[in-house]
Amino acid sequence: MKKELITLLCKKSFKYTEEPTFKLVSGRMSRFYVNCKPTTLSARGMFLTGHLMFEAIRDCDAAAVGGLTFGADPIAMATAFASELNGQPVNAFSIRKTQKDHGIVKWVEGDIRPGEKVVVIDDVATTGGSTVKAIERARSEGLEVVRAVILVDRQEGGLDNIRAHVADTVAIITRDELVDRWKKMGK
């Protein structure tokens, strides 16, 4: 499944150039561009991502999986669906970028309660900033973050930054794996 997902990411979500031409959120220029949404929102990509993410979290006794909207949302939903198919249900949740200012004011939406163990996920990590923000917001809602899982690690220090907040942090796919496949595909 992982090899197929890497190929799908290369077809739908990854771009690579010899010269830095892609502007990142930080303002830096990069030779790599990763937008996982075309993959994670496709039927096959959702299937592969959900199963691989579930495999990455199935041993940590988490009640739910989620992260900062919008990158983590399709992955969380696919993971919850795969978990049910595998007889080990894990709910999905979403963390807002801006706090709700009406009704019950909260950062996190989903079928979870304070004190429950959760896994925070993200589609891509460069510096890890959005994942760290999600971890902080989950904790502010009383959730116990037991693991962080990144779909694609750009290998630019993000995982180390996330590990400063959650020791158990892993990535499913690395930038090097994408570049290797990209080159083999003759892109």
Describe the structure.
This is Orotate phosphoribosyltransferase. Orotate binds at residues 126, 154. InterPro entries: OPRT, Or_phspho_trans_dom, PRTase-like, PRTase_dom. Residues 78-160 form the Phosphoribosyltransferase domain. GO terms for molecular function: magnesium ion binding; orotate phosphoribosyltransferase activity. The structure is a single chain. By secondary structure, this protein is an alpha/beta fold. The chain has one domain (42-175): Rossmann fold (3-Layer(aba) Sandwich). The protein is built from 7 helices and 10 strands. The strands form 3 sheets. The protein has a 6-stranded mixed β-sheet with strand order 7-6-5-8-9-10, sandwiched between helices. The protein has a two-stranded antiparallel ribbon with strand order 1-4. A two-stranded antiparallel ribbon has the order 2-3. Helix 1 crosses helix 3, helix 1 (2-12) packs across helix 7 and helix 3 packs across helix 4 (73-85). It starts with a helix and ends with a helix. The model has no long low-confidence stretch (mean pLDDT 93).
Quick summary:
With 187 residues, the protein is an alpha/beta fold. The protein has helices spanning 2-12, 37-40, 43-57, 73-85, 129-140, 158-163, 175-184, and strands spanning 14-16, 22-23, 29-30, 32-34, 64-68, 91-95, 108-110, 117-125, 144-153, 169-174.
Notable traits:
187 residues; alpha/beta; Rossmann fold; 6-stranded mixed sheet; two-stranded antiparallel ribbon; 7 helices; 10 strands; globular; EC 2.4.2.10; glycosyltransferase; orotate phosphoribosyltransferase activity; Or_phspho_trans_dom; OPRT
